[in-house]
Automatic annotation (TrEMBL):
It is found in: Cell membrane. The lineage of its organism: Bacteria, Pseudomonadati, Pseudomonadota, Gammaproteobacteria, Moraxellales. SUPFAM superfamilies: MetI-like. It comes from Acinetobacter johnsonii. This is ABC transporter permease. The keyword Disulfide bond does not apply. The chain crosses the membrane at residues 26-45, 82-104, 116-137, 143-162, 206-226, 238-257.
Length: 273
């Protein structure tokens, strides 16, 4: 009995060790390319192959970060972040509402789908002059532009997910005599949830891109403003630092969405799907 217990503990320890090694290898692989790029940039700048006014040495970015942080960097980050999440919430909420209507009703689809398909093809920059004329240079125009960017990935993925629900599931619901909205609530939306959540993740990523377009014009705060200010003052270190901040914030927000997606779809592990 004692040997069996000891063997079980030993097996658990081996599995933990193996899992840790796999995670460590995964992390090392992920950071290999960024580290090599940083080393290459540092060498090329220090050796004089690239002028510092074109590309600053990576080691000098830390001083720029500290200087900006002591000023008002946190305010720029906060301003961009709340703009992104507010625009994402508004755009994705409207997208879910319209997508459910279009996905469930062919008559509604005939009215809305052609118009949405045409609007989806309009580039983000084309909206800016019109939004500035209608809403001015205040927050409303920026939030609206971000909401437009967040709308279409959620809308497109949700419609496709609803239409892709297995008809056998609906037939089972009819056998159990579920009412129409019971079928929607208990069968169709849960079955379509993987596609819906994928659309939400894509919408959040696109919201960050549209935020930059919104802040590059008529903004006094935000990461997009830092990009514009760095360009106008010939400060590539500020521009690169702003780009790094965007990458970090975008990755962090996507990780949050991925964790939410994993939690909401935990039923797939139970059913082995």
């Amino acid at each position: 009995m004692t040997k069996s217990v000891a063997s079980s503990f030993s097996h658990i320890e081996v599995k933990k060790s193996s899992s840790f090694q796999l995670k460590l290898k995964s992390v090392l692989k992920a950071i290999t390319l960024p580290v090599l790029l940083l080393i290459a940039c540092e060498y090329l700048v220090r050796a004089g192959f690239i002028e510092p006014y074109l590309l600053p040495a990576p080691s000098s970015l830390w001083q720029t970060f500290l200087h900006l942080w002591q000023a008002d960097l946190w305010m720029h980050v906060w301003t961009s972040t709340w703009r992104v999440f507010l625009g994402f919430f508004i755009g994705s909420a409207l997208a879910l509402m319209f997508a459910i209507l279009v996905g469930l009703n062919k008559q509604v689809e005939a009215f809305l789908e052609p118009s949405f398909s045409a609007i989806k093809s309009i580039p983000s920059l084309a909206w800016i002059p019109l939004l500035l004329l209608w809403l001015g240079i205040d927050e409303a125009s920026k939030i609206t532009l971000i909401a437009i960017g967040a709308f279409f990935p959620t809308y497109t993925n949700t419609v496709a997910a609803i239409k892709g629900v297995d008809r056998k599931l609906i037939e089972v619901a009819q056998v159990y005599r579920l009412k129409y909205w019971q079928q929607v609530q208990q069968i169709i939306l849960p079955a379509a949830s993987p596609g819906i959540l994928t659309g939400l993740r894509n919408s959040l990523s696109l919201a960050w891109m549209f935020m930059i377009a919104a802040e590059l014009i008529a903004a006094t705060q935000g990461i997009g403003y830092l990009l514009s200010d760095g360009r106008e003052t010939s400060r590539p270190d500020i521009v690169i630092l702003a780009i790094i901040l965007l990458a970090v914030l975008g990755k962090f927000s996507d990780s949050i969405m991925k964790a939410i997606e994993t939690w909401l779809l935990r039923w797939r592990d139970v059913f082995g799907t």
